[in-house]
Write a structure and sequence with these properties.
Radius of gyration of chain A: 48 Å
Distance between the termini of chain B: 14 Å
Strand content of chain B: 15-25%
Largest sheet of chain B: 5 strands, parallel
CATH architecture of the largest domain in chain A: 2-Layer Sandwich
CATH superfamily of chain B: Response regulator
CATH topology of the largest domain in chain A: Heat Shock Protein 90
Largest sheet of chain A: 5 strands, parallel
Shape of chain A: elongated
Distance between the termini of chain A: 90 Å
Strand order of the largest sheet of chain A: 2-1-3-4-5
Strand content of chain A: 15-25%
Mean pLDDT of chain A: 86
CATH superfamily of the largest domain in chain A: Histidine kinase-like ATPase, C-terminal domain
Number of helices of chain A: 15
Shape of chain B: globular
Structural class of chain A: alpha/beta
Number of domains of chain B: 1
Strand order of the largest sheet of chain B: 2-1-3-4-5
CATH class of chain B: Alpha Beta
Mean pLDDT of chain B: 87
Helix content of chain A: 40-55%
CATH class of the largest domain in chain A: Alpha Beta
Oligomer: heterodimer
Low-confidence stretches of chain B: none
Order of helices and strands of chain B: EHEHEHEHEH
Low-confidence stretches of chain A: 555-561
Largest interface: A-B, 21 and 19 residues
Number of domains of chain A: 3
Chain lengths: ~550, ~120
Amino acid sequence: MEKILLISDRDEVAKKFGDIFSKNIHDFFVLTDELMITDSVSVYPPDIIILDVDSNEIDFKTIVKRVKSIDENIILIIYSDNEFDDIFLTSYSNAFITSTMSDKMIYSTVNMNLKTKNSLEKLFNTNKDLESSLYRLNALYDTSSKFAGTLDKKELLKYMIEGMDRTLSFSLTCLLSFADKDNPELILNSLYELSDELIAAIKLRTILNYKSLGEIPYDLNEKDIKVIKHIKYPASRFTFSLFQYDNMFAPISLGDEFFGCVEIFKDSTFTPDDATCFQTIVQQVALPIKGADLYQELINTNKELEKLERLKSDFISIVSHELRTPLTSIKNSMDILSSGKCCEITPTAEKFISMAQRNIKSLSRIINDLLDLSKIEAGKMEFNFKECNIQSVIDYVKSSLSEVAKSKNINLFAEVNDLPEIKADSQRLEQVLTNLVSNAIKFTPENKNIFIRSKLMNSKAIPKNPIFEDELNKLEGDYIVVTVEDEGIGIAESNLRKAFDKFAQIENSLSRKVGGTGLGLPIAKQLLEAHKGTIWCDSTLDKGSKFYFALPVTKVAQLSR
Amino acid sequence: MKKILIVDDEQDIVESLKFMLEASDYSCYCAYNGEDGLKMAKEILPDLMILDVMMPKINGYKISRLLKYDNKYKDIPILMITARSQEEDKKIGEETGADEYITKPFDLDDVVKTVDKYLKK
């Protein structure tokens, strides 16, 4: 029923309006006293107030100010016998009626204003609902973006509680967390202090809740639960009546994975919207927790792998060192025997001694290769970068291998070129070139040729080989390109790349026959990469192979580490 | 006859070094651990020492450092035997003051040549 208040001290006016507003539809009442009016507005607010401004002894200005200060949306209609021109009162009024108007007219004016007021009120309420929904939505959005920002499980659960605080404003949340599976925690976020007895009761209740979930993933013993409490206002205390509060409960799980459960208490009733919001947050946190779990697993696996990798490197390094000592003794003994200083050596004995010596040499080369590789992989290889001339490297390798080549009747040619100096570790370059040339000698039949060439080239002029596209595309600027070309058995195209892989021996039987670990090329590749250079190869089966390596001329400054 | 002190816990290696060096007319003294090596170095004042790096308790580096920082012994040339590669050891060697590095497996002839370089001027 709409409430209409008339403020008037004129009886005839009171009677007139009393006739207009029927008792059944409207609650019509008349007041004159200022105090009564303000009380009525604050306790029993009317929908409309009609001001009889022609009253005899009423101070309307004061009343209007009072009324508006209590409810600024209240509707005021001015009633007057004449034209009315008080600016103050008109400025606060919504409508204006006069005694000259018919009753019907007055009735409809008031009614229209009533309707307007009702519509406005509805709008206002809808707006308020919208605002609170929007706030909740924002809070939910914030919470889920926070979830996305961390991979720490405890942090995620903290954000979950914060999200609930913002959207549901709880009195207490009891979170049973299995973030650390072996150390379950009961995290209590409470408005007020909780006594030890109350905490014990909450603990029991939580265990019961947890066990009511049916198939429980972890055994739970009261003693094993660590309680953590966060109290907002420690000066006040909750009592056992807390358990009569409205509450909601949900497990935090994803598929078969179980991370904990949470119960929330509030001193007022939860609406269905609250329940949805609660479920949403709990469901939302499960996925990132699972993600965090997986991430942790990944980190652990990675650590394990790194450890294994290091162990492998250490192992190779230790074994190689240990192998060197007995090998030294064997070598020394053989050398002493072959020196003839301790006894006469027969030709047959000499044959076997030199067989042993040859194998000692090969074994020691294998150990050196393994050591080199383990050092490179562990990042422990040290380089001595100095200005050096590639020609002297070529000369050294040519002279040290010419004997071996000659024994196979292979002609070893080396071009002499005047090339700029580069900053490099010449010993390592000798190692690379020795490897390439001795490979060439191994795989080249008798009476054939091997050519060593060197040239200054711009990266653009280097002939492209699609198999080594990645490496070649990285080259930029001027390079010294060294090539070792043989007329040997060649390498099938499908095997070219493998030749630079660790332990990948192409045509095993042949490699066996000619000896070697198959580590020479991978080592060469790594050594050249440390020089910011690269190595690649062209080859035709039965015609021969051409190995290239490029060393930068301009990037000198970058080499000194 | 020039005196050479060989210190290495690997008896086989000591044996072969001794054989070759004696064949080149050096008189050899042997110690099989760091403590004995240091003691003997001070007693016999050798003309040259061959030291293994890896030995229990007092390793080759320690012995070298102790001798090279002592005016009485600092002129004794020291040949260091190592199973590691040279570049690794050179760094530490610079502090310990060894004169030469021989990497295992080494060539006995090379060792004799190196010894000759220091003792047959």
